[in-house]
Amino acid sequence: xxxxxxxxxxxxxxxxxxxxxxxxxxxxxxxxxxxxxxxxxxxxxxxxxxxxxxxxxxxxxxxxxxxxxxxxxxxxxxxxxxxxxxxxxxxxxxxxxxxxxxxxxxxxxxxxxxxxxxxxxxx
Length: 123
Fold this sequence. Notes:
Elements: E1 3-9, H1 15-27, E2 31-35, E3 41-47, H2 50-62, E4 69-76, E5 93-97, H3 100-110, H4 113-120
Parallel strand pairs: 2-5
Antiparallel strand pairs: 1-3, 1-4, 2-3
InterPro entries: RWDD2A-B_C
């Protein structure tokens, strides 16, 4: 079973903080997707264990991002419409995108697009 969470911040621009997020993704063995460079900052985390996801979210909290909002608390991932269900391997590490549209495309590919839209307040 996989677990995920969604965080929204004012922005993600500090390369030093991004490096800390990458280290935390490696330590907690999670997949992390960031929308960095401008407003809004969006972070998606996915892991095999709820404790791993919660640990990564704890690291983000300690970095004291402006307007930190844990919009979707760590919980069991429920793939939509059969997407992502065949996924046996969890990607590890951190990936970045520059636009909300790209972020949405990644969420759709992972099978959590409607969940993401609801968490962001789009649906």
